[in-house]
DNA sequence: TAATGGCTGCACCTTTGGTACAGTCATTCC
DNA sequence: GGAATGACTGTACCAAAGGTGCAGCCATTA
């Protein structure tokens, strides 16, 4: 029988994922070999395939972690903004500023690029990976969309605004900003894009 | 002696590049095998390695084509805008609209994601590839930066604007928008992001 | 006619991502 | 205390992908 407190549980799987994530963010998933992972964790190949049926299952597990982390990042920021500010517009402005600050502090580690990495090789992976990728991006879209709707209600804009596009803007800037930041080796690019979008939000609803 | 009109010149190399580009955009560079390319072009492995020392040299050649295409896209649009409009702000607004239209028409084929593909695996490639990637992105930055400076001069904004970030916005949105468009299977996402940025530009300088 | 460009053909090598399966050792259940 | 189970190890073997090295061949060109 298997229950939560089973002492036989080891942290090997977790350690594989940890190392795989770091390596994937640094070198891409394709550049991360199983041999490298088992050497790093100190197990054998059989040990690896005991935990993951194949490399695709490892990718799925990484995406799973990413989705969890993703949701936490979004909700943490909006929860904090809601705690501090009642007004939807000013809450959004505060949230965007906090988000930009968060990105400044952990520029390399953001797993957003996991989505991009998998996106550009998705033919190689399972449909599961693609679905998870969509799911993660929909999390952003719906969270922002709902809040922009609240803003529009209280601050009707002069010109019509493409709310769907606006809701997608942040994740678009994150994905693009991570690429630019990486290419230019400049972690300030992404937070500055977010702050620029914040200016746009302020201008749009005032 | 080798000169331009050498009749022995074949188009094999060009055909390899053509096929490799299409395959890379569809499946990623890692997912594009040499065997697949030589089968498609109808040559042998030796034939491939006659043209390219290794797969990295193929990647470099693809990036080369991308840079050329990249510059043409930028200059075509701004040239046309300059032709029609003298005012820097309205020229920019027109250019952005034309760009969004262009993206709507050729959503799949835009090679921007070549940069992203290579970016997320750049440790595997030569320093050349990374330099070419930087070069391509600087093309965007400098082109836009110059034009935003002209706009600021004629239309001094009320609040201070981060011109560097603004100059990077379009390529950031392109890279991010290609990812979202790919994940959601929705080619309208990118052009709409560009149109949203256009709104921001209009609002910022009026 | 000789040289050269643009290949072909063949042999062989390494790395990576597996598959298959038997054995081991510590813990836990009864 | 013995059986079952979880978490592995070890060994052997396989195919695909990315090469390397080299000899040869054929059409064009100097």
UniProtKB/TrEMBL annotation, chains A, B:
HTH tetR-type domain sequence ranges: 10-70
Give start and end residues of each DNA-binding region: 33-52
Q: Does the keyword DNA-binding apply?
A: yes
Please give the organism: Hansschlegelia zhihuaiae
InterPro entries, per database record: Homeodomain-like_sf, HTH_TetR, Tet_transcr_reg_TetR-rel_C_sf
Which named protein is this?
Answer: TetR/AcrR family transcriptional regulator
Query: Which Gene3D superfamilies does this UniProt record tie to the protein?
Result: Tetracycline Repressor, domain 2 (1.10.357.10)
Keywords, ordered alphabetically? DNA-binding, Transcription, Transcription regulation
**Source domain of life:** Bacteria
Q: Which GO MF terms does the UniProt record name? A: DNA binding
């Amino acid at each position: 029988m298997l229950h939560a407190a089973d002492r036989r549980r080891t942290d090997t799987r977790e350690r594989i994922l940890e190392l795989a994530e770091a390596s994937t963010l640094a070198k891409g998933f394709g550049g991360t070999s199983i041999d490298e992972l088992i050497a790093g964790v100190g197990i054998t190949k059989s040990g690896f395939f005991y935990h993951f049926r194949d490399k695709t299952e490892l990718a799925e597990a990484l995406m799973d972690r990413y989705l969890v982390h993703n949701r936490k990042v979004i909700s943490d920021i909006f929860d904090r903004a809601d705690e501090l500010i009642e007004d939807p517009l000013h809450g959004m402005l505060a949230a965007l500023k906090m988000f930009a600050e968060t990105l400044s502090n952990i520029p390399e580690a953001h797993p957003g690029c996991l989505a991009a990495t998998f996106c550009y090789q998705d033919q190689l992976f399972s449909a599961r990976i693609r679905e998870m990728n969509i799911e993660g991006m929909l999390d952003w879209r719906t969270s922002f969309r709902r809040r922009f709707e609240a803003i529009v209600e209280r601050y009707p804009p002069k010109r019509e605004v493409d709310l769907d596009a606006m809701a997608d803007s942040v994740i678009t800037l994150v994905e693009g900003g991570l690429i630019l930041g990486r290419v230019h080796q400049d972690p300030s690019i992404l937070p500055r894009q977010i702050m620029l979008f914040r200016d746009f939000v302020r201008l749009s609803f005032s």
